[in-house]
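dumping this here so i dont lose it again. seq + smiles for magnesium ion
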Amino acid sequence: MFEKLFSADTLSEAWQVISTQFPLAVWETVYVTVLASFFAVVIGLPLGVLLVTGEKGGVLPLPSWLMHLLNVVINLLRSVPFLILMVLVFPLTRLIVGKVVGTAASVVPLVIAGFPFIARLAESSIREINPNIIEMAQSMGASPFQIIVKVMIPESVPSLLSNLTIAVTTILGYSAMSGVIGGGGLGKIAMNYGYFRYKYLIMIAAVVLLIILVQIIQSAGTRAAVRTDKRLKNKQ
Amino acid sequence: MIEIENLTKTYHTSDGAVEALKNVSLKIEDCDIFGIIGMSGAGKSTLVRCINMLERPDSGSVRIDGCDMCALSQKELRRARRSITMIFQGFNLLMQRNCLANVCFPLELEGMKRADARRRAYELLETVGLADKAGAYPSQLSGGQQQRVAIARALATSPKVLLCDEATSALDPTTTNSVLELIRDINRKFGITVIIITHQMSVVESVCRHVAILDGGEVAETGEVAEVFAHPKTAAARRLVFPENDGELVVVKSAGERFIRVVFNGANATGTPLIARMAVERGIEASIAYASTKSIGDKAYGSMLLGICGGDEKVRGAIEYLQKMPDIFAQEVSLNV
Ligand SMILES: Nc1ncnc2c1ncn2[C@@H]1O[C@H](COP(=O)(O)OP(=O)(O)OP(=O)(O)O)[C@@H](O)[C@H]1O
Ligand SMILES: [Mg+2]
């Protein structure tokens, strides 16, 4: 099936598509990923904090039925495959965006899939904090809210950043997947040309761009995590 | 004044109940340096954590200047904790903040303005001798320096009481001494009551005025350091005071030799060849069987075990001679307790 991959015809056609459609597609992918990541963090980070602080013996204990509910909901959302989740939240998407296809519409399922993931990652970052530090803050008369915003979150920033990087690359992957049923961006191009019209070269180009995006996000994230970590002794 | 009355705390674990504190009562005067010493698991940390209610006692009361800590609401308790600060074995500095910001932390909690907080934090870093490290991060400091920053932080809210839970246990002997010296200075300068938890005899000997010996969750003995160390009444106290009995130190006893325990509690003994002088002035020859003393400033702290041959008269003579010195206590001990 790949024999005519590099014939002059396919090359010029591919170039045609790449130069006209790719810039918008890349932009759509980046935009959807950033927007969805943002909302997923806004919802997921506080939930992740609550998963730690709400425990029995935690900083801000919550009723145990509430903690159970929270855990069940998060596990549930985490276990539904993304494409199915996307279909399941169509009613919600229609309610918020007004339609279920298109770039903006794919943000809704991405947020729904992303926030439970981010909540779990944030939970694990915050659990890494030395419990003695929390006790120190309590011994100085810090309120639960002060402990969260002045100790838990700032102390786990490096870990949160590297986990956030994982989350963003995952959301990017989902956004490409959303191209299958109505989402925009590079995923849609790869599907349309590669799957439906057998233009494999274009599909490969789209995939390569996705790989490059993941690489950029990952190295930026790793750098930021290392750079913010004041525990590391010997950097410059 | 801190009044602890009939404090009881039992932990319920899967292997049954652990009585960490049993009916503990103590009185700690203002401006005192009070040591709480005991073997591992004696309940020292539990006791100190009950003072600022990090741990709720099952029964009994803790009153600080007449204020019943158990009766405070969460909000009142948070306010009260600003005047009862704590330093820890592990320093517990915020690793992502530099030293200055670490000292600012309790001031931020109070809602002090940023500029004022930084000014005060800087002054405190000067007090502990680390003004030049204001911008350094904890990971760039030695253990002793980290503990100094922690002390500066604990002083930020001008507390009445400073609780030190094994604050020097992670430090080497020299650093331990300099940190203890700092604690003593602070006690003198700011009139802060200091409670020192430790399992190291030497720490109590060198800084504390009063001591309580905790054994299996109970107060075995309490009183002035010199008194308790010179005349330990209970088995628990003797175990701590006479480390030579714990089997690690084997004193080779020659025939007819008897032993005197000499406790230095801030005596002006450095620079004075005490033992040599006793030999010259009284004709009593003593051999040193065990010694753990140190000088802080020009004062000596610690204890020594002297072996003396020559019977009753010499032993009594030596005790009398040594007792005459200020801040030195001497007592005959039998080594086979
Ligand atoms: N959170 C807890 N749950 C269960 N048991 C505990 C808890 N904290 C302390 N204990 C038990 O209470 C007893 C006293 O502990 P504590 O930590 O007060 O001892 P300690 O004198 O400070 O010892 P160390 O010198 O080793 O620090 C121990 O037997 C310990 O196992
Ligand atoms: Mg302890």
